[in-house]
Amino acid sequence: MQNVAHALALAGLLLVPAAAAAHGDRHHDGRSGPVVMEQKPWGIAGQAKAVKRTIEIKMTDDMRFTPAEIEVKRGETIRFIHHNSGKVMHEFVLGTRRELEEHAALMKKFPDMEHDEPYMAHVPPGKTAEMIWHFNRVGEFEFACLLPGHFDAGMVGRIRVVQR
Fold first, then answer.
1. Which domain holds residue 105?
2. 87 pLDDT above the threshold of 70
3. CA 87 to CA 131: how far, in whole Å?
4. How many CA atoms lie within 13 A of 102 on its CB side?
5. Residue 142 counted as domain residue
6. Nearest to 94 by CA among 129, 57, 60, 120
7. Cis amide linkage into residue 67, ω under 30° from 0
8. Given this model, what pLDDT does residue 33 score?
9. CATH assignment at residue 116
10. Which among 45, 59, 98, 163 has most CB atoms closer than 10 A?
Protein backbone atom coordinates (compact mmCIF):
# COMPACT_ATOMS: atom_id res chain seq x y z
CA MET A 1 0.00 0.00 0.00
CA GLN A 2 2.85 2.37 0.84
CA ASN A 3 4.45 1.70 -2.58
CA VAL A 4 1.17 2.58 -4.29
CA ALA A 5 1.02 5.89 -2.38
CA HIS A 6 4.62 6.70 -3.38
CA ALA A 7 3.88 5.85 -7.01
CA LEU A 8 0.78 8.08 -7.01
CA ALA A 9 2.73 10.93 -5.41
CA LEU A 10 5.48 10.60 -8.03
CA ALA A 11 2.92 10.50 -10.84
CA GLY A 12 1.32 13.67 -9.45
CA LEU A 13 4.66 15.45 -9.49
CA LEU A 14 5.15 14.52 -13.11
CA LEU A 15 1.84 16.17 -13.95
CA VAL A 16 2.83 19.57 -12.51
CA PRO A 17 2.65 22.08 -15.35
CA ALA A 18 5.99 23.04 -16.85
CA ALA A 19 5.47 26.68 -15.92
CA ALA A 20 5.25 25.89 -12.24
CA ALA A 21 8.21 23.54 -12.30
CA ALA A 22 10.33 26.04 -14.22
CA HIS A 23 9.66 28.75 -11.66
CA GLY A 24 10.04 26.62 -8.55
CA ASP A 25 8.53 26.96 -5.09
CA ARG A 26 10.65 29.77 -3.72
CA HIS A 27 9.41 33.32 -3.41
CA HIS A 28 10.79 35.91 -5.83
CA ASP A 29 14.36 36.05 -4.62
CA GLY A 30 16.46 37.38 -7.46
CA ARG A 31 18.85 36.22 -10.12
CA SER A 32 20.39 32.78 -9.96
CA GLY A 33 22.76 33.02 -12.91
CA PRO A 34 24.02 35.19 -15.75
CA VAL A 35 21.63 37.64 -17.39
CA VAL A 36 19.94 36.19 -20.45
CA MET A 37 20.32 38.54 -23.43
CA GLU A 38 17.03 37.83 -25.21
CA GLN A 39 15.42 40.40 -27.50
CA LYS A 40 11.87 41.22 -26.43
CA PRO A 41 9.35 43.52 -28.13
CA TRP A 42 10.12 46.08 -25.39
CA GLY A 43 13.94 45.81 -25.58
CA ILE A 44 16.80 43.74 -24.24
CA ALA A 45 18.75 43.43 -20.99
CA GLY A 46 21.13 46.33 -20.60
CA GLN A 47 24.77 46.62 -19.60
CA ALA A 48 25.71 48.80 -16.60
CA LYS A 49 28.42 50.59 -18.60
CA ALA A 50 25.79 51.74 -21.14
CA VAL A 51 23.38 53.34 -18.61
CA LYS A 52 22.30 56.80 -19.80
CA ARG A 53 20.11 57.69 -16.83
CA THR A 54 18.54 56.34 -13.67
CA ILE A 55 14.82 56.31 -12.96
CA GLU A 56 13.64 55.69 -9.41
CA ILE A 57 10.34 53.85 -9.03
CA LYS A 58 8.41 53.85 -5.76
CA MET A 59 6.15 50.85 -5.07
CA THR A 60 3.48 51.11 -2.39
CA ASP A 61 0.85 48.97 -0.72
CA ASP A 62 -1.87 51.16 -2.22
CA MET A 63 -0.95 49.19 -5.39
CA ARG A 64 0.61 52.08 -7.27
CA PHE A 65 3.92 52.94 -8.90
CA THR A 66 5.41 56.43 -8.81
CA PRO A 67 6.00 57.52 -11.47
CA ALA A 68 3.31 55.59 -13.32
CA GLU A 69 4.22 57.06 -16.73
CA ILE A 70 7.74 57.08 -18.17
CA GLU A 71 9.12 58.24 -21.49
CA VAL A 72 12.47 57.06 -22.83
CA LYS A 73 14.24 57.47 -26.15
CA ARG A 74 14.94 54.52 -28.40
CA GLY A 75 18.53 53.47 -27.75
CA GLU A 76 18.56 54.52 -24.08
CA THR A 77 19.77 52.15 -21.42
CA ILE A 78 17.99 52.88 -18.15
CA ARG A 79 18.90 51.85 -14.62
CA PHE A 80 15.67 51.41 -12.67
CA ILE A 81 15.95 51.66 -8.91
CA HIS A 82 12.83 50.17 -7.31
CA HIS A 83 11.93 51.18 -3.74
CA ASN A 84 9.29 49.11 -1.97
CA SER A 85 8.01 51.33 0.82
CA GLY A 86 5.24 48.87 1.64
CA LYS A 87 4.85 45.94 3.99
CA VAL A 88 4.29 43.29 1.28
CA MET A 89 6.36 42.01 -1.64
CA HIS A 90 6.03 43.91 -4.92
CA GLU A 91 7.53 43.44 -8.36
CA PHE A 92 8.19 45.45 -11.50
CA VAL A 93 7.72 43.48 -14.72
CA LEU A 94 8.14 45.06 -18.16
CA GLY A 95 6.13 43.79 -21.10
CA THR A 96 3.28 44.17 -23.51
CA ARG A 97 -0.23 44.37 -22.08
CA ARG A 98 -1.03 40.91 -23.46
CA GLU A 99 2.05 39.27 -21.97
CA LEU A 100 1.49 40.93 -18.59
CA GLU A 101 -2.14 39.77 -18.52
CA GLU A 102 -1.11 36.20 -19.39
CA HIS A 103 1.62 36.17 -16.75
CA ALA A 104 -0.72 37.66 -14.13
CA ALA A 105 -3.20 34.84 -14.80
CA LEU A 106 -0.41 32.30 -14.38
CA MET A 107 0.64 33.95 -11.10
CA LYS A 108 -2.88 33.44 -9.76
CA LYS A 109 -2.54 29.69 -10.38
CA PHE A 110 1.06 29.50 -9.07
CA PRO A 111 1.53 32.38 -6.60
CA ASP A 112 4.94 31.17 -5.41
CA MET A 113 6.54 31.23 -8.85
CA GLU A 114 10.20 32.19 -8.88
CA HIS A 115 11.36 34.56 -11.60
CA ASP A 116 14.79 35.08 -13.01
CA GLU A 117 14.22 37.31 -16.04
CA PRO A 118 16.19 40.52 -16.62
CA TYR A 119 12.99 42.51 -17.25
CA MET A 120 11.66 41.73 -13.76
CA ALA A 121 12.62 43.11 -10.36
CA HIS A 122 11.28 41.58 -7.15
CA VAL A 123 11.42 43.81 -4.12
CA PRO A 124 10.77 42.62 -0.57
CA PRO A 125 9.04 45.02 1.84
CA GLY A 126 11.24 47.96 2.80
CA LYS A 127 13.95 46.99 0.31
CA THR A 128 15.39 48.30 -2.94
CA ALA A 129 16.20 46.44 -6.18
CA GLU A 130 17.88 47.43 -9.42
CA MET A 131 17.21 46.52 -13.03
CA ILE A 132 19.01 47.67 -16.20
CA TRP A 133 17.12 47.64 -19.50
CA HIS A 134 18.03 48.76 -23.02
CA PHE A 135 15.07 50.16 -24.96
CA ASN A 136 15.88 49.46 -28.61
CA ARG A 137 12.32 49.37 -29.97
CA VAL A 138 9.87 52.26 -30.33
CA GLY A 139 6.42 51.65 -28.87
CA GLU A 140 4.12 51.76 -25.90
CA PHE A 141 4.73 49.16 -23.24
CA GLU A 142 3.67 48.58 -19.67
CA PHE A 143 5.10 47.59 -16.34
CA ALA A 144 3.14 45.90 -13.60
CA CYS A 145 3.23 44.04 -10.34
CA LEU A 146 1.94 40.58 -11.22
CA LEU A 147 1.64 39.21 -7.70
CA PRO A 148 -1.89 37.88 -7.15
CA GLY A 149 -4.31 40.75 -6.60
CA HIS A 150 -1.82 43.53 -7.32
CA PHE A 151 -2.31 43.66 -11.10
CA ASP A 152 -6.10 43.47 -10.71
CA ALA A 153 -5.92 46.35 -8.20
CA GLY A 154 -4.31 48.55 -10.84
CA MET A 155 -0.60 48.25 -10.02
CA VAL A 156 0.31 49.06 -13.63
CA GLY A 157 2.31 51.79 -15.35
CA ARG A 158 3.27 52.79 -18.90
CA ILE A 159 6.53 53.27 -20.72
CA ARG A 160 6.55 55.11 -24.02
CA VAL A 161 9.67 54.59 -26.11
CA VAL A 162 10.03 57.38 -28.64
CA GLN A 163 12.30 57.81 -31.65
CA ARG A 164 15.37 59.90 -30.82
1. 25-162
2. yes
3. 21
4. 7
5. yes
6. 120
7. yes
8. 55
9. 2.60.40.420
10. 59
